[in-house]
Specification:
- It is a single chain.
- Helix content is 47%, strand content 25%.
- Strands 4-3-2-1-5 form a five-stranded mixed sheet.
- The relative contact order is 0.12.
Amino acid sequence: MLKVKLARFGKKGQPHYRIVINEARDKRDGSYVAKIGHYAPTQNPKILEVDVKAYDEWLTKGAQPTDTVRALVERFKSGNPFPAKKNKLSKKAKAKLEEAKKAEATPAKEEAPKEPEAKPAEEVKEETKN
């Protein structure tokens, strides 16, 4: 039985994969019948290239894709396999932001009552001068 698999290549900690057609019982990184694409997850941005025509031909011949390969090909067919993620604040950054907002809000409240108290004192001084 033929399988569409990922064959791992690359250094330790720096994998890249070939999408290959291989006998189900053969070694993961052994010889293969055909190469139909490659996937580099450690690159920035990630690289995914698949020959969709060849993939579909092998499926019609009876090759069974692994779950991972099936998911990768679906992503590739979608047109935007790895959409950019929105930057999110860490928990510490969120906490600092909340503290800063609270700090800005509390002095504004404290300053508002002080100003009306100061104005009558100035008016009193002006009245005594006149």
